Amino acid sequence: xxDRYIDFANSSFGHRLVGALGLPSPVRLERWQAGRLRPIEGxxxxxxxPLAERISTLASRLTDGIYSYGTEPxxxxxxxxxxxxxxxxxxxxxxxLQHTDQLKQLREFFQPLMKNLEHSAHLLILGRAPETLxxxxxxxxxxxxxxxxxxxxxxxxxxxxxxLIYVGDGAEDQxxxxxxxxxxxxxxxxxxxxxxxxxxxxxxxxxxxPLAGRKALVTGAARGIGASIAETLARDGAEVILLxxxxxxxxxEALAARLGGRAITLDxxxxxxxxxxxxQLPDGLDILVHNAGITRDKTLANMTPEFWDAVLAVNLNxxxxxxxxxxxxxxxxxxxxxxxxxxxxxxxxxxxxxNYAASKAGLIGLAQAWxxxxxxxxxxxxxxxxxxxxxxxxxxxxxxxxEAGRRMSSLGQGGLPQDVAEAVAWLAQPGSGAFTxxxxxxxxxxxLGA
Length: 450
Fold this sequence. Notes:
Mean pLDDT: 92
Low-confidence stretches: none
CATH architecture of the largest domain: 3-Layer(aba) Sandwich
Number of domains: 2
Number of strands: 14
Helix content: 25-40%
Order of helices and strands: HHEHEEEHEHEHEEHEHEHEHEHHEHHHE
CATH topology of the largest domain: Rossmann fold
Strand order of the largest sheet: 3-2-1-4-5-6-7
CATH class of the largest domain: Alpha Beta
Distance between the termini: 28 Å
Largest sheet: 7 strands, parallel
CATH superfamily of the largest domain: NAD(P)-binding Rossmann-like Domain
Number of helices: 15
């Protein structure tokens, strides 16, 4: 559904009127386009601590324009505020900040950049997880990065985003994947997020097709976000298997044929659903995306048992049962990637959605609880929590609520199914095993929740 306010705000007359009235002025976000080869099309600025040199050595695979500020990475050209090029991407390594007085480096580095960013610029701060540090002053300084990064992300304009990545010991070699995602238009609707990376043995061998040779199953794939996920996984080289309910068979088979994949019609809540699914996957599975979900909204005072049970059965119980069966049977192979579609409703709650929010919070809890037990097999499990996404479902929300949902984020607009799909595709990569047991919000830094 078209966002008419963005269309108006970006017209010549609308831009002047919105500015004069002091109204929100969201811009059209830059998103990944087919045929694009480089993650960054513009200048990349690198600064800060010891990881800056490591990043500079791989930066030539990201862009041709590499600059430094405040440090002297050997592969970079010095950037001079007001005289250097506008910046499309920025990485600042704050991992060596250990005391309060060192935090001023954040202001000294970022303040001169704020008026020198291109449209839809992407910024990253690197740190060390506070809980891993023995020195309480160092842990305090690193925890301070969260407050700084979330606040600065809310000050950015023109579609710019910012994330904080805590880099664990041994995870330094896994930085290229996150840089390719978070510094590119693939993360257009992700901002203000805190990511933790750990060591991971697997790597991407071909960045043009990072999922080549991997077999992926997507539930709820006939339309909407599920269809976009299937398309994006196939674009990145995966062999896709699409699953949905029998009434969606026609749409499902058409999409599977277009993507060169295979369709499975199945009621995932059936008593024998796990047995049927395992029989349909004799060659095993590398990527499992639980996207299928339903809503049955009512305030708790008016919630029927049927509405409650249906939502919990589809959204939470089915992913639990099917994933366990696929793990126990060995169908889900070692080094597999499991992605659960949660929601910011499961983080912040939402009036009239006690059933839905409970199911989505349960998925986040499932990822957190299962992640440590799957490490021995090299399997990662994560949740993706979308905010307001422009779909057929949100198109039927009353106008006032729909507009509020769109504007209540730092980016001032709703996301697209592609935004969720890009996050899922990144988490499905071999190297993304460095990211597990976490919830990645795709919400434009919504004001709801943490």
